[in-house]
């Protein structure tokens, strides 16, 4: 992990840099802290796809496109305003408390304590998936474009620092989009394969959801404490 951080900061812009950023995106989406997001996404896909892998992939693609749009815009902002933005992030310690707070909220969502207003697929199962559901998945992906887990904060900060120091809007947009697509690859796999997996483990769905919820809350609290103790 330290090598990835060092390379992201010091490496030049090249095909290797983009490949590394893509890998970092994949890694960010398979860390334990990101489990609540994957769990919520899997449940969302199951509700919309109704067991159809093609529909599941369509939902995932539109969700990922929404994430990519947000990441692209964020990359432009980091590149254009990075020199001014980074001191703001450090001053208010945004990467110290924002991701853990999201983890705590995600955990409460999984436990049913709170409920986020998430788009739902309400069409009868006999009707094909239409543009409305695709648009819903795309809209849902937009706010998730910048969702990061506490475990991935060092890498994410390294990435936005690199973009800010380079100061290239084009590369900033492309690098953030590449990072988002790395996470998107994991989401696509979850969308397709979770159908068969969740069918087999349906009776364990409740306990697994609760475990993920409690784990998310504990991780969020621990990272909050560690962050503010530094």
Indicate the topology.
Elements: H1 2-10, H2 15-30, H3 35-49, H4 53-91, H5 94-110, H6 131-141, H7 153-166, H8 169-200, H9 205-229
Q: What does this 3D model show about the protein?
A:
The chain is built from nine helices and no strands. The chain is mainly α and 230 residues long. It is globular and about 45 Å long. The two termini are 20 Å apart. The model is unreliable at 1-11 and 118-132 (pLDDT under 50).
Summarize the structure.
With 230 residues, the protein is mainly α. It has helices spanning 2-10, 15-30, 35-49, 53-91, 94-110, 131-141, 153-166, 169-200, 205-229. The longest helix is centred in the first third of the chain and has 39 residues, at 53-91.
Helix content: over 70%
Structural class: mainly alpha
* Molecular shape: globular
**What is the straight-line distance between the termini?**
20 Å
Average residue pLDDT: 76
- H-E string: HHHHHHHHH
For the CA atoms, what is the radius of gyration?
Answer: 18 Å
Determine the number of helices (DSSP H or I, runs of at least 4 residues).
9
Find the count of extended strands (DSSP E, 2+ residues).
0
Strand content: under 5%
Largest sheet: none
Query: In terms of per-residue confidence, which ranges show pLDDT below 50 for 5 or more consecutive residues?
Result: 1-11, 118-132
